[in-house]
Amino acid sequence: GCSTIEHMFESLLEAPPASEDMLTKKQYRRSEWITAAEAAIRYPDSPEDEYFDAVEALGYDKWTLGHLDEVDYDNLSPHMQLRYVGFVDRYGDFAQSLKSMVIAKAAGPTPATKEERQDDFADCELAMATRMDAAEAGRRIQVDRDLASRLAKSRDAMAAGQMTYEQAKALSDSTRHLDAPTAQDVEARVHRSAWKQSLKNFRKSLNRA
């Protein structure tokens, strides 16, 4: 199933054995499969594949979108189409990091006093500018204020395509009752594996952190 394939690809990140003589027959057959699968994913087969390969090498940047739009995904080979989907998915994380930064700047810092909170209409203003209702906008502002301050490394991870907004939100929600140093300690522990985890598995990491 998917979990087995995911585990196989994760093993690509581990240090290889000193020699193939150390592998059992079963392990050796598995290593051959991984090598073939890795090659299929990483190497282009056509001019369009090569073009996307070059676009992907640009990384996650606001200038990349124009080049990404030029990719003729209909003419990508099947494995490159999957890479395209993965890249667009992570580019979405980069876009969310920009959105988070602008929302935090527009909303301003968290009001410190009761009077300031009564005069804080950032949730209503964001709701008017988007398709959120005021309650949803208020929750979004809470998360983005966190990502602009004590959890800034998570926004950096989003910008690098290494963390989703949903993961960052889960981190913010679960550490809101903690002081900044403790929250940042939790953040550092869950960052190690966030890039390869589903939201469900990320939540499990949060519970263990």
Explain this structure.
The chain is an all-alpha fold and 209 residues long. Helices cover 69% and strands 0% of the residues. The protein is built from 12 helices and no strands. The protein has helices at 2-10, 25-42, 47-57, 64-69, 78-107, 114-118, 122-129, 134-147, 152-159, 165-175, 180-194, 199-208.
Task: Write a short abstract of this structure.
The chain is mainly alpha-helical and 209 residues long.
Keywords:
single chain, globular, mainly alpha, 209 residues
Q: Quick one: how many beta strands?
A: 0
Low-confidence stretches: 12-21
- Relative helix content: 55-70%
Report the order of strands and helices: HHHHHHHHHHHH
Instruction: Describe the main β-sheet briefly.
Output: none
Question: How would you state the average pLDDT, rounded?
Answer: 84
Category by helix and strand content: mainly alpha
Rg estimate, integer Å: 21 Å
Determine the N-to-C terminus distance: 28 Å
Oligomer: single chain
Proportion of beta-strand residues: under 5%
- What's the overall geometry? globular
Number of helices: 12
